[in-house]
Each structure stands twice: as C-alpha cells, then as structure tokens.
Amino acid sequence: MTDPTALHYPMDRQCPFAPPREVTAVRDAGEVPRVTLWNGVRPWLFTRFEDARTVLSDPRFSADKSRPGYPLSSAVALAETAVEPTLLVMDNPEHDAVRRLVLGEFTVKRAERWRPAVRAVVEDRLDRMLRGAEADLVADLALPVALTVICEFLGVPFEDRELFRSLTHTMNLVAGSTESAAAARQALQDYLEDLVAAREQRPQDDFLSRMAARHLADGSMDRRQLAAMGLLLLTAGHDTTANMISLGVLTLLRHPRHFAALGADDDPVLLAATVEEMLRHLTVVQRGIRRIAREDTEVGGHPVRAGEGVVAAINVANRDPERFSAGEEFDPAARAHGHLAFGYGPHQCMGQSLARVELQEVYAAVARRIPTLRTTVPVEEIRFKSDMAVYGVHALPVTW
Ligand code: HEM
Questions:
Q1: Can you tell me the mean pLDDT for 38-52?
Q2: Which residue of 41, 318, 330, 386 has the fewest CB atoms within a 10 Å radius of its CB?
Q3: What is the mean pLDDT of residues 229-237?
C-alpha cells in the first residue's frame, strides 16, 4: 500500500519519456490514493484507464475551477476564471449550449479541408529551415507551424503571434503567479475583442468572421464571449500541438525503424496509426485532468464525496496494459484507438481533427524530406518541460 501522505502530486519524472514511476506504481497496485497538491488540496488520484474515463464523462463531476476545493494544477490555473469563462471551465447545460454554437467548424470533414493549407505551411517552414545547416526544431518548425495554422483558422494576423505566444507561455508556466497570468489573459481578451469588432465590420473567410456574422447578430453570443472562444482556441490550439510536433519528432528519432518507414511509404493508414500511437504514448497534458464532485458518487467502486477533488492521470491511464497492449512501449502497429490524450466526455478536445491533420502532415514531411535528421546534443542536454502544464521540449537542436 502506498503511503498517501507521501504522495505529492505531480512528482518528478525519472525518465523524460515516461510518466513518474510512483504514479505508474499506484495504477499497477490498483490503488486510489489521496494526493497532496501544491496548495495542500488533497484530491483522489485515478490512474486506471476505465476510472479516468468515468471521471471525465460522469456529469456529477464539475470542471468549474472557481468552486472551493477545486484541485487546481497551479495558482496560474485560477486565472482561467478571472476574465471570461471559457468552455473548459463550464458545466452543463451552459457548456453544451456554447459548444454547439461552434462545433460545426471542427468536424473531421472541415479539418480535411484544411489539409492542403496545413501542408503548404509545413513545406514552407521546412524550406526555410533547410536553408541553414542546423536548426532548433521547436522555434523553427513546431511553434511556427502550430501558430500559423491556428492563426489562419481563426483569422488572427500572424504578425501579432509574438503577443499571444508569450501570453500563452505565461499562462502555462506552472510556477507563475495568478496576477501575471490574469493580466496576460486580459490583454489577449482585449486584443481579440478588437479583432472581433474589426471582423464584424469587414468579414473575411475565417472562424471569427463567420461566428461574428452568425451569432452576434442574433444575440446567441456577445463580442466578449466570442473573444473568449478565440482566446481558448489560440491558447489550447497551439502549445499542445507544437509540443506534440517537437516531442513527436524526437520520439521518431529514437525509433529509427518507424521514422524510416514513415519516410519510405506514402501510407496514410500507417501515418494515422503512428500519430494515434504518438498521442497515446506521449500524452503531453502531463498533470492530469482535474474535476470536483458536485454530489456524492463513486468511480470504479471507489466512493467520492461531494466537494472532493479528483485527478484523472491520463498519461498513466493511456499506458494501462489492461487497455493498451503496447503499454509503456511506442508501437504504431498496436491499436492506440480510444486513448485519452484529447480527454473524454463533454470536454473532449474540440480541435482534435485539426491537430491530427497537423501532426500527420509534419511527421510525414519531416520523415520524407529529412531522413538524415539527428539531434546535435545528447538527450541529457535537452531541456524537457517538466515546469509546464503541457509537456515537451524547450528547444531541440538538430542537423541533417
Ligand atoms: C495535439 C494537440 C492537442 C492536445 C493533446 C489537446 C488536448 C486537449 C485535452 C486533453 C482537452 C480536454 C481538457 C479537459 O477535459 O479539461 C482539450 C480540450 C480542448 N481543446 Fe485540445 N488539444 C490539442 C489541440 C487542440 C487544437 C488544435 C485546438 C483548436 C483548434 C484545441 C481546442 C480545444 C478546446 C476548445 C478544448 C475545450 C473543449 C471543451 O471544454 O469543451 N485543442 N484538448
């Protein structure tokens, strides 16, 4: 039995390519410990696949971070409710009503329509990168690709990217302060409210213009709410994807056989399977998805009382050997289908189809165009993002 008082969550990783060993041990022992967070709050930790799915789909759990006792991942997370609530912190019926207003923009079909534009962005960034002899795969490929795609999608001028890149960074810094994150959010909210007003006046072919025309006129949304939606998409949409690009390429370099196979075969089935397995294996949302019980309930036979917090450790649940035969390994031939890297239930990632298209296009293009890609530093010198809400690498120096 794990000593619950000893478990401060999250723990440090022992290996940069695996979740902390203590959390895996909890899962394998079938335990549900109460862990202690940075602020002394003590949620239940669910690590098995089925339990994590229950936590994420049971409507008795709330995502409202302003509820007393909510298991916040950091002081910075409090800023998410400081300006204008986004989908991420809403419960039903409000959540469904708002999500339904924009869902049509995020279908698989829509994402496929974006594929040629995504491909063009990836090729352009690779052309520029390959003019030199070495590069930082984060700054020169992962971030610009993810940022350009979400900017084009929303209709946000790419020239302003530094503004929201740095604001997102502030908001994702686990050790940051609530005040600076709230100020960053407010600045981004103000910027987007101005942009929405501009798109109302002069609509273009983009998300903000379409939503402004559709929902501002009939009052189903106001400018402030649409700006908050844009803010969520910008912040949720680029950092996660950028980290999956850079950490994913590093993972492919550590598995040369799979890297070579992607480059040699123009096989969409293999590509899609590799991306799903990468999402499962890396699960960059590394600090668990948190909720709070609205009423007494139970998860996998374990009672949870109203007002108690819960953490679904999706990174460990995604390696649960009872659900995924690949377990700890990276194996694109195993079925990763149904993983929790995009969450599950009402809040499941709205941008997942677009993210998949981006990852498929980047991994395929890198494997095809730079088969000699390699890092210029040993893995011990790579700085991993243990200090951030979303896991990845701060920089990835490469040559070819
Ligand atoms: C590989 C990249 C991505 C990963 C790993 C990822 C992961 C996640 C996860 C785990 C959640 C659930 C959070 C929760 O339950 O509390 C989520 C929600 C969300 N994601 Fe993503 N995401 C990615 C890319 C994107 C992109 C590209 C967009 C936008 C185009 C996006 C937009 C959203 C939105 C709007 C939500 C909130 C949905 C809701 O609360 O109803 N994500 N994402």
A1: 97
A2: 386
A3: 90
Which sign, positive or negative, has the C-alpha torsion 330, 333, 335, 340? positive
User: What does the pLDDT average to over 169-179?
Assistant: 72
Distance 165 CA to ligand 1 centre (A): 17
Cα 371 to averaged position of ligand 1 atoms, centre (Å): 31
Distance between Cα 150 and ligand 1 center (Å): 13
Measured from the Cβ of residue 198, the count of other Cβ atoms closer than 10 Å reads 16
Ligand 1: which of 233, 315, 342 to mutate, most ligand atoms within 8 Å of CB? 342
93 preceded by cis ω (within 30°)? yes
DSSP letters for 249-290: HHHHHH-HHHHHHHHH---HHHHHHHHHHHHHHH--BTT-EE
Q: Model confidence over 255-307: pLDDT tens digits?
A: 999 999 999 978 999 999 999 999 999 999 999 999 999 999 999 999 999 99
- State whether the beta carbon of 275 lies less than 6 angstroms from ligand 1: no
Tokens describing residue 311: 């953490």
Q: How confident is the model at residue 85 (pLDDT cuts 50, 70, 90)?
A: confident
Closest to 134 (Cα-Cα) out of 364, 394, 376: 376
How far apart are alpha carbons 263 and 92 in whole angstroms? 45
C-alpha 6/C-alpha 141 separation (Å) is 41
Q: Give domain 4-399's CATH superfamily.
A: Cytochrome P450 (1.10.630.10)
Say if residue 171's pLDDT is above 80: no
Cβ of 349 closer than 6 Å to ligand 1, yes or no, is yes
pTM here?
0.96
Q: Please tell me which residue, 165 or 30, carries the higher pLDDT value.
A: 30
Q: Which residue from 207, 240, 311, 315 has its CB within 8 A of the most atoms of ligand 1, so it is best to mutate?
A: 240
Q: Cβ(341) to ligand 1 under 6 A? A: yes
Pairing of strands 297-299, 302-304: antiparallel
Q: How far apart are CA 378 and CA 286, in angstroms?
A: 23
Which atom of ligand 1 is the closest one to the Cα of 238?
27
SS3 203: coil
**Measuring CA to CA, which residue among 51, 52, 37, 48 is closest to residue 4?**
37
Tell me the C-alpha distance between 313 and 45, whole Å. Answer: 7
Q: How far is the CA of 349 from the centre of ligand 1 (A)?
A: 4
